[in-house]
Amino acid sequence: MGDRSAVAGSAAGRDLDQNLDPDLISALERVAEAPTLLIALDFDGTLAPLVDDPDDSRALPAARTALDALGALPGTIVALVSGRSLESLTRVAEAPDDQPLVGSHGLEVRFAAADARPAVDDADAARVAALRSRLEPLVAAVPGAWIEPKPAGLAVHSRRVDDPDAVGALVEAVHAEAAAVDDALTVRDGRDVVEFAVRDATKGDGLRALVERFEPDAVLFAGDDVTDEDALAVLGPRDLGIKVGEAASSARARVADPEQLAVALAHLLRSRESFSGDAR
Q1: Nearest alpha carbon to residue 203 among 106, 94, 63
Q2: For each of the chain's 280 residues, which pLDDT tens digit applies?
Q3: What are the structural domain ranges in the chain?
Q4: Who contacts 208 (Cβ-Cβ below 8 Å, separation ≥6)?
Q5: CB–CB of 186/83 below 8 Å?
Q6: Class of the 2-117+207-279 domain?
Q7: Which of 1, 40, 44 is CA-nearest to residue 220?
Q8: Angle subtended by helix axes 258-279 and 22-32, to nearest 10
Q9: Which burial class, exposed, middle or buried, applies to 5 when counting CB atoms under 10 A from its CB (0-12, 13-18, 19+)?
């Protein structure tokens, strides 16, 4: 019975692989053979479909299953690299204590539960508080808009706003007000969000920190938003970057959505399990 189940599972995997680009399949099989592989992934829009309320975001079960199995393999590190704060990322990703995480676009880095880099000091926190007090009235005046606090700044979300003109006016207003409050802020425009930070860091900085710590032979990074391009830009010739969605990207490979990325991760798992077995 066990052998028949394994064969059926393998056949099902091959059927799903038909939705993947053959070049992506080849690239996945290549990185699967790295002695030490770092898999570093964005969360929202990559592992989890985008939702109106970020607190409701969860990784697709198929993606979660593949990542849990990959993380259990020898020489395989699974990390998350997000614009979310570490606290928020840990909660929605249901991340175990020993999982490496990068939050706040590289400002917060956790290699393990007892090994984390803080995002801000007291002076930075005061700058964030001053900024929020000035932006709150602008955001409150637009139904559906809201502020997400972060350790090193804040994000103004407009995904729930129905009026496109109201979104445009809000984005323009918060940009202008933030510049008047603090002209040293780092500002990032993403999908239905504008983020302000009192320290400058990118997901590329976070990915570099992971590479320096774990010294992998190859890296796989996947992301869907413009801020993920900073991480894709630091990948080397042995690495694999995957863009989720249709937006322009420097990534060498692409999948349509988080569902298709989950299929790619399942193929990576099967390839790496085969490589690990051969290595033994």
Answers
A1: 106
A2: 344 434 434 545 555 676 899 999 999 999 999 999 999 999 999 999 999 888 999 999 999 999 999 999 999 999 999 999 899 999 999 999 999 999 999 989 999 877 877 667 889 989 999 999 999 999 999 999 999 998 889 999 999 999 999 999 999 999 999 999 999 999 999 889 999 999 888 999 999 999 999 999 999 999 999 999 999 999 999 999 999 999 999 999 999 999 999 999 999 999 999 987 665 5
A3: 2-117+207-279, 122-197
A4: 234
A5: no
A6: alpha beta
A7: 40
A8: 40
A9: exposed
> Residue 167 corresponds to which amino acid?
V
* pTM for this prediction: 0.81
d(CA 191, CA 205): 21
Check residue 8 and give its pLDDT. Answer: 39
Asked if domains 2-117+207-279 and 122-197 share a fold, the reply is no
122-197 folds as Alpha-Beta Plaits (3.30.70)
Residue with tokens 């992971």: 210
